[in-house]
């Protein structure tokens, strides 16, 4: 993975144009759960769609999306440095934050990270029950930094999903992932 072009959102906003290079979409339905895609649109394709499908009409949703014709990777801000103000405001009022990310590969896996171990285990079970491969004990996608966007809610613990390209490119698999996460949130008493 290459280094980020920008160290934080303020620097990005000085160099990139809202509405032309990136867009921010927020759906605040007043839920204690927020689903985020901090690298959505053309930055990490498929993540915005999965985040919106998980959130549906029940959970808050935040997407930062690359919309440039090329070089959208320049818009990537590493999760522990992602500091876009509207995102931080929304998640700071949330008990649970689930962040949807993309990773390379065609292993048919969702790598789970974050500091909310019970929810992470519930999501792993619900994904496996739907035939989706899962890795919890991974060294690359731990999501354990307290400043990671998924861990910046009120409880200081959340879940990070890193989804391989083959799953993100398959509409049926994307729907299954969203269904599994929704089932896990429901199981922990987080359905509205």
What would your notes on this structure say?
Helix 2 (47-55) crosses helix 6 (171-187) and helix 4 crosses helix 6 (171-187). The protein is 30% helix and 23% strand. It has 192 residues and is of the alpha/beta class. The longest helix is centred in the last third of the chain and has 17 residues, at 171-187. The chain has helices at residues 9-15, 47-55, 85-92, 117-129, 165-168, 171-187; strands at residues 22-27, 33-41, 60-66, 96-103, 109-113, 133-135, 159-164. A 7-stranded mixed sheet has the order 1-3-2-4-7-5-6, with helices on both faces. It has 6 helices and 7 strands; from the N terminus they run αββαβαββαββαα.
In short:
30% of the residues lie in helices and 23% in strands.
Between the first and last Cα atoms, what is the distance in angstroms? 38 Å
Q: Could you tell me the strand content as a percent range?
A: 15-25%
- Radius of gyration (CA) equals 15 Å
Low-confidence residue ranges: none
The biggest sheet, with number of strands, parallel, antiparallel or mixed sense and barrel status, is: 7 strands, mixed
Strand order across the largest sheet = 1-3-2-4-7-5-6
Topology as H/E string?
HEEHEHEEHEEHH
Q: What number is the mean pLDDT? A: 94
Inertia-based shape: globular
Quick one: how many beta strands?
Answer: 7
Total helices: the number is 6
Structural class computed from helices and strand pairing: alpha/beta
Helix content: 25-40%
